[in-house]
Amino acid sequence: MHIPMSSPDLTSAERDAVNDVMNTSVLSIGPQIGAFEQATAAYVGTRHAVGVNSGTSGLHLCMIAADAKDGDLAITTPFSFIASSNAILYERAVPVFVDVEPATGNIDPGLVAEAADDLARGVNVERWLPRALHGSASSQLKAILPVHAFGQPADMDPILETAGRHKLVVVEDACEAIGARYKDRAAGTLGNAAVFAYYPNKQMTTGEGGTIVTDDDNWADLFRSLRNQGRDVFDAWLNHTRLGYNYRLDELSAALGVVQMQRIDEMLSKRERVANWYNERLADVELVERPQIVATTTRMSWFVYVIQVRQPVVRDELMRYLADVGIPSRPYFTPIHLQPFYREKFGYQRGDFPVTEYLGDVSLALPFSGVMTEEQVDYVCDQLRRGAHKLALVPGAAS
Predict the structure, then answer these.
(1) pLDDT per residue over 72-86, tens digit each?
(2) The sheet that has 363-366: what strands, in order across it?
């Protein structure tokens, strides 16, 4: 049985929309982008949505709007796709990592508060700054960048309270969480701005691409300028007000996004159905812990289905077993602070963020998409159960 790691959910309507654009002469910043932005803002519940060519680009522009400069600090999580902290580095600011909650993998709001309080007062700074920056001149804390890992919102209220006390910008990395709700408030409406992403493995896709959402009129204008080489609305052709970037979302991608946005709740429901199939079939597998949904999450937006295999060596052996029977799986995530670049630049070591490292050692993403069949899920779960049973019988494997 062929089971891909992920698959986009596409219909003839998406193909027709892209073909319609192909029959026009407008392929960049045309009516499809405007329609996609309006649909996204309406769905999320913000005043503005600004299309960009990736979630990473969107996060970068948010760091510019947050006025992050050389040496400034932004609190974020090491348990994420690497783009969330790279976007901080693009402005030569410094990601200040704090550990995460074991149940969700989301940033720990208590540690966010401790870090912000200490950094604001200039005390215990070496507890929070990367090892390579110990003893350096103090820098200004500018922002908090929480990540809604795997489609489950971070615990935002205490984070927002900390941000309010210290006058910090909050940028939600909602790249994995479109449609998610926190205490019945939409992910993307909680901070100063948020970013969604639409890579083909996401809940919806534009091929590549993303949107920044915000209620701030000035930020929205800034984002539209920055994505388009620094042109302002009043600039003539080839005149540029500020340093900008080629971060535009093209019309073909936007046309795909318009149709996908019309189907978003349908697609989220299909992904939830697949997640429920997994939950039912894995309930009795002793070596496996299923994803936990916490009380503050009033709607989970299923991006991936990530289990925890209770012992790291068993996780890796189970991954190899699944590969041998034709089932792809992935460790999810490799902690950012243990990536070679971050180790070399900042001096991070194993042991710096124990919860993140544990999750990185035991988490395993299974094949997942809204177009998976029940038969495919049955096959994955049957093989996973067989592999777990086999490994449990190996002396010491599950100890």
Answers:
(1) 999 999 999 999 999
(2) 288-289, 305-309, 363-366, 330-331
